[in-house]
Design goal:
The protein is an all-beta fold. It is built from 2 helices and 63 strands. The chain has a 19-stranded parallel sheet that branches. An 11-stranded parallel sheet has the order 1-2-5-8-11-14-19-22-25-28-30, covered by helices on one side. Strands 43, 44, 45, 48, 49 and 50 form a 6-stranded antiparallel sheet that branches. The longest helix is centred in the N-terminal third of the chain and has 7 residues. The protein is elongated.
Length: 702
């Protein structure tokens, strides 16, 4: 229990103005800081140019609208907090989960979906009244809105459509996102696309390095009845088995086609795949009314029982080179376009493609055509990872599941498993089951979570930012647990799970007088550490290093003893009763009972202790602590280290004869006093004495 309290109960200083925070318990009355976060809608309405808005993990239910705009030079970034999963659920609404009516805003690393279970409509057409799900992300169709938007490394699934990116969204970019299982089934056909987009003459829309699969209709749909199919750059995407979930046979991975001719379309280095059992799959580029300036190069199109590419005959202004086709082609022939590979049967060998992510170091998409159907495929990722990187590899068809590979990169090829049958389960009842494409085709997402962020500025320890972790005072002793506050203190959130404690967490190290301190926890705004036992009393210097950047030294003072009592629930002591229940008004201690109060900073123990390791047994500390509850002395039975916990001290004491109520508990070592925290005392005497009760470690859970 106390292990959990140590991380969750320490006060955190406010973040700099450009760093805003959102949480499930946030409020519009708050300042948007780490410890006083906004709610999501308040952030979307009130963030300022240049702000980075971090969404803490959790499920945000409802329909939200962005109206706060950045500028070209200072966009607003709405991003999932490092190491946490921020999810937006549109529920059973037909409105978008997130409506975008703002300019120069980036949305990064979020998950967006609808949880309504109905996926079968009794109505034909694209606007059924009996399907209760909306578009995941939809740009507002109003002039002078949605300029300069970026959608980066999102996970969008089970929406009406994942992204509605309309003509007004000038210079918008969709990058690195995973999009799947969108749409619904209807009597006429499957409906709903991964991305549905249009663009006018102004600006260029960029659709790059996305993974799109399993929608009821198209993966990417560029379509319009009017002249709104202009200026698209479509590169590095992977689309497969779209249309697979519908009861009909229409399947299209990419469609750039409408009533008017597409203009100025670049379509390069994309991948399309349909499983061998799917008939009728296709890619359509161009309109029956022609096209202008269409460039199609370096793509890999597989539709063994369908059409690898359809180019309408009226579309003549086209560059088509260095593509690979397996399956029928319409409007494309060897004689007309000789600089392409036209395959008539499944080839031998393995084709591997790696697409580095330009927004996150150590991240990449890996596409494998495993024609030999091998169980595993070796892949050289030395251009993505560095030796010693911790990495995680996920199957893109189960992107929110556990990694299929993880570990420390040793500069050797990774052996990618190709026979996984695990695919993300679509929400609701479907006419057709989702089926994995392995072993013939696989897509993987490689990440190096500890390199996902790079330092934007040198770490900075706040003035008087080194504090006793329990009392939050500046009185600190050898062996104490401390909290360090500031900005840019780590690249990402990480907590230690083993002993001895490491000297690096979250890409950060913390030194005291030049020696590394054991770390319990690190995030960009707080580090929790233990002061080594051998740090002498007097003025002490601390430094934080993140990557190649180092903070200015921060001075603080070390005393022989600096008791601080951990507290919970509005100033109540982190203390256990004689039956090891948490002391509270509902579970008070009676006069004569023993209670165990948990603290830090009692001083150096009687026997030598290595830093970063909790003792197996109780270790007394001399001189012993004394204690008072209210104005009455509370006899101390034991004061020393709590078994198994690093830097945690325990004081076992007897509750004096007091009337029922709340009283201040104070622990002293010599003349140095702790903070005061509340203890609940009940009525009546204890039925048994706790004299001689042994010191013991608290349970990890209540």
């Amino acid at each position: 229990m106390v292990r959990l309290l140590m991380l969750s109960l320490m006060t955190v200083l406010a973040a700099p103005a450009v760093e805003r925070f959102v949480s499930l318990v946030g409020s519009s009355e708050n300042a948007g800081t780490f410890n006083r976060p906004w709610d999501l809608q308040t952030a979307l309405s009130n963030a300022a140019p240049g702000d980075t808005v971090w969404l803490r993990g959790g499920l945000y239910r409802g329909n939200f609208t962005c109206s706060a705009s950045g500028t070209r030079e200072q966009p607003i970034v709405f991003r999932a907090y490092p190491g946490e999963r921020a999810r937006i659920d549109g529920g059973s609404s037909q409105y978008p989960a997130l409506s975008i009516g703002c300019n120069y805003a980036w949305f990064w690393g979020l998950e967006i979906f609808f949880s309504d279970a109905k996926r079968k409509s009794s109505e034909s057409g694209s606007n059924p009244t009996d399907i209760h799900r909306g578009i995941g992300l939809a740009t507002v169709q109003s002039p002078n809105t949605c300029i300069g938007l970026k959608f980066i490394n999102l996970v969008l699934h089970d929406n009406f459509e994942s992204i509605g990116l309309w003509a007004e969204a000038v210079d918008a970019e969709v990058y690195g996102s995973i999009i799947y299982h969108d749409g619904w089934d209807a009597p006429d056909r499957g409906h709903g696309h991964g991305i549905y987009t249009q663009n006018a003459a102004a600006g260029t829309k960029r659709i790059e390095d996305n993974i799109m699969f399993g929608s009821f209709s198209h993966g990417l749909h560029v379509y319009s009845f009017s002249d709104l199919m202009q200026n698209f750059h479509i590169e590095g995407n992977v689309a497969f088995n779209n249309g697979r979930l519908a009861s009909d046979t229409e399947s299209t991975n990419y469609r750039v086609s409408g009533e008017m001719p597409p203009k100025n379309i670049v379509f390069k280095n994309n991948h399309s795949y349909f499983s061998p059992e799917i008939a009728g799959g296709d890619v359509v580029l161009g309109s029956n009314n022609g096209c202008t300036n269409l460039t199609v190069t370096g793509n890999y199109f597989i539709a063994l029982k369908g059409r690898a590419l359809v180019k309408p005959s009226a579309c003549r202004d086209i560059t088509l080179q260095r593509n690979v086709f397996l399956g029928a082609t319409v409007g494309v022939s060897r004689t007309g376009f000789p600089d392409n590979a036209y395959l008539t049967e499944v080839p031998k060998g393995v084709e591997t493609f790696i697409r580095p992510n330009r927004y996150e170091q150590g991240r990449a998409h890996i596409v494998i055509y495993n024609w030999d159907r091998a169980d595993t495929v070796p892949v050289d990722v030395s251009a993505i990872l560095r030796k010693g990187d911790y990495f995680e590899l996920r199957d893109a068809q189960n992107p929110l599941g556990e990694p299929v590979l993880k570990g420390i990169y040793e500069s050797l090829p990774l052996s990618l498993p190709m026979r996984s049958a695990v695919i993300a389960s679509p929400i609701g009842e479907l006419p057709v089951s989702a089926v994995h494409t392995g072993p013939e085709f696989g897509v993987f997402v490689l990440t190096a979570p500890k390199r996902a962020l790079v330092p934007r500025a040198a770490p900075e320890i706040a003035p008087q930012g080194v504090r006793n972790a329990a009392s939050m005072s500046d009185t600190i002793a050898p062996g104490s647990l401390i909290s360090v506050f500031g900005s840019n203190l780590a690249l990402y959130t990480e907590a230690s799970t083993t002993q001895p404690l490491p000297e690096s967490l979250g890409g950060s190290t913390f030194t005291i007088n030049g020696s590394g301190a054991p770390l319990l926890y690190a995030d960009p705004y707080q580090i929790n550490a233990q002061v080594p036992y051998d740090v002498p009393a007097g003025r002490t210097v601390a430094v934080v290093t993140v990557g190649d950047l180092t903070s200015e030294p921060a001075e603080f003072s070390i005393e022989a003893a600096a008791p601080g009592i951990f507290q919970i629930d509005g100033g109540r002591a982190a203390a256990l009763n004689a039956d090891w229940s948490l002391n509270s008004p509902e579970r008070p201690a009676r006069p004569g009972d023993m209670i165990a109060a948990y603290c830090t900073g009692l001083g150096v123990p009687d026997r030598p202790m290595a830093p970063g390791i909790g003792p197996a047994d109780p270790v007394p500390i001399q001189p012993p602590a004394s204690a008072t509850i209210g104005s009455s002395a509370a006899p101390v039975l034991y004061s020393g280290l709590a078994p198994r916990f690093v830097g945690l001290c325990q004081v076992n004491l007897l509750v004096p004869e007091l009337a029922q109520g709340d009283y201040d508990l104070e622990i002293s070592v010599g003349s140095t006093r702790s903070n005061r925290v509340l203890i609940a005392v009940g009525s009546g005497n204890a039925e048994r004495s706790a004299q001689g009760a042994p010191a013991r470690a608290p349970e990890d859970e209540p």
